[in-house]
Amino acid sequence: MSEAVADSIVINAAPKAVMDVILDLEDYPRWQDDIREVEVLERDSQDRAAKARFVVDARLLTAIYTLEYTYDEDGVRWQLDSSEQLRQLDGGYRVAGGTDGTTTVTYELVADPTISVPRFMRRKAAEHIVRGALDGLKRRVETGP
Q1: Correct CATH for 3-143 of 3.40.190.10, 2.60.40.10, 3.30.530.20, 3.50.50.60
Q2: Among 7, 104, 118, 130, which one is least packed by beta carbons within 10 Å?
Q3: According to the model, what pLDDT value does residue 115 have?
Q4: CB neighbour burial string for 115-143, b if at least 16 within 10 angstroms, e if fewer
């Protein structure tokens, strides 16, 4: 059974600055503690990642997976393409600019590992991934490289 979690954070920057960091997948290991490696495998016509391979150390397991990406005016979504450790890993970032120069980022994630894990542990792991990514994104955008 998959675990769906979502959380949001307010970042002191314009939406474009936030999206620039989100779209730079190859930089993720610098600001997301659990991500060890990212390789963009395919790009779309706008030079954004269309497919990428990740190596992630996510508390319960080390996962290697490939995600496929789609984009719209307010964010990015991904869907699991392949993995031996995961049945599902779908989610996305949504960005919304505020009138005060801030941006609210919402991260949604649905995860389902192939290993048998108690539900509360799956939920904790998914919450850890989402919270870590949002906190890391905020630090990266607000303080830079």
Answers
A1: 3.30.530.20
A2: 118
A3: 76
A4: eebeeeebebbbebbbebbbebbbebbee
